[in-house]
Design brief:
Number of helices: 2
Distance between the termini: 64 Å
Keywords: Lipoprotein
Protein name: Lipoprotein YajG
CATH topology: Lipocalin
Helix content: 10-25%
Organism: Dyadobacter arcticus
Strand order of the largest sheet: 1-3-4-5-6-7-8-9
Radius of gyration: 25 Å
CATH architecture: Beta Barrel
Number of domains: 1
Structural class: alpha+beta
Number of strands: 9
């Protein structure tokens, strides 16, 4: 009977120790890891209007990590007419956690867009001075 009681006490102690141990939360992924990847541009916004990209107009946004809190963005949108193509590379984009799994993209002190949850939005100002474009891409 004493052996049985000792075994019972041993199991009780082990159960208490393992049940009481506090599991630490998994660390959040780096900001750049949250948004890195290739996105297909699906929508374009300009002057308050939203356009669905289809047919001959196609686009991609590629985000690459430069560090944990810095990224590079490559935008490539074309409608088949080379003079209308929008292509650009933006380096040294600072990343800021804005909650909800989203990250704000900041270039030279200006908000360039945001990304996270398999979606990204990037604002591009045309060189001709027309209203800026806002590209929305989905992974």
């Amino acid at each position: 009977m004493k052996t049985f009681n000792r075994i019972l006490v041993l199991f009780t102690v082990i159960a208490c120790l393992t049940a009481c141990s506090k599991k630490e939360a998994d660390p959040a992924p780096e900001l750049s890891a949250r948004i890195s990847g290739d996105y297909k541009v699906t929508y374009l916004k300009q002057d308050g209007k939203t356009f669905t990209l289809n047919g001959s107009t196609k686009g991609t946004i590629k985000v690459s990590a430069e560090s944990a809190e810095m990224a590079q963005v490559i935008v490539d949108v074309s409608n088949g007419n080379p003079s209308d193509d929008i292509k650009g590379v933006i380096n040294n984009i600072a990343l800021k956690d804005i909650g909800g799994g989203e990250v704000e993209l900041i270039a030279n002190g200006f908000t360039l867009g945001k990304g996270g949850n398999n979606q990204i939005t990037v604002k591009v100002a045309p060189v001709d001075g027309s209203a800026p474009y806002e590209f929305i891409g989905i992974k």
